[in-house]
Amino acid sequence: MNEEYRPEYKKKSIRSFVIRAGRMTDGQKKAFDTYWPVYGASLFDGPLEPEQAFGRSAPQVLEIGFGMGDSLREMAENEPDKDFIGIEVHPPGVGRLIYTAGEAGVRNLKVYMADATDVLDDCIADNSLTRLQIYFPDPWHKKKHHKRRIVQPDFVQKIRRKLKTGGVLHLATDWENYAEHMKEVMDAAEGYKNTQADGSFAPRPAYRPITKFEKRGEKLGHGVWDLVYEKIGER
């Protein structure tokens, strides 16, 4: 992988992801040259200043691990009243997102190619997000790898600090075991409440697009589980 396309991160002991280089297309490489100056944000620039980044003050939505970015771009197009921040460590996905966003003329989007924990710590203000979403994170199937799952008690508290009161954390997975794990973590998490009155999984909110991957899974009889939890107050 070209050095200039490497993700940014600070050293730490346990990661929730593995760098998979992947082969970047010429289009993705060109996208970095053309569109990174428009959409790119650096971990090392410190706190994100929304009015400077987006030219306005609007509700902020952050997605961790947007993959190839199609659903994030679609949400940014469908919700022009909100500003979207995406975090992803895999350069091909970042390249695809910024290319398709640029071609579509999307203006309410900024992208970090960096570790999510680092970005939350150094760049995102407390009590600033209307919604934080994590869709189809790596389930880390083997029990010995469960510590690598991104949805853990400490991490959801880090997220809670970044959400406004009344803001929501929206999780989705197509692995039932991970869905149960996430629900267990969230039900025990201080300062959150399930938006479903009966404490169940949520129907897919209209704002979350159905991905091609999800459509394929549905045809094969695979389930998808959504969880939406609201921040209810400060410590």
TrEMBL record:
InterPro entries: SAM-dependent_MTases_sf (IPR029063), tRNA_(Gua-N-7)_MeTrfase_Trmb (IPR003358), tRNA_methyltr_TrmB_bact (IPR055361). CDD domains: AdoMet_MTases (cd02440). One of its GO terms (molecular function) is tRNA (guanine(46)-N7)-methyltransferase activity. Keywords: Methyltransferase, S-adenosyl-L-methionine, Transferase, tRNA processing. S-adenosyl-L-methionine binds at residues 63, 88, 115, 138. It comes from the Bacteria. GO terms for cellular component: tRNA methyltransferase complex. Substrate binds at residues 142, 174, 211-214. Its EC number is 2.1.1.33. Pathway: tRNA modification; N(7)-methylguanine-tRNA biosynthesis. HAMAP family: tRNA_methyltr_TrmB. Belongs to the class I-like SAM-binding methyltransferase superfamily. TrmB family. This is tRNA (guanine-N(7)-)-methyltransferase. It comes from Gilvimarinus xylanilyticus. The gene is trmB.
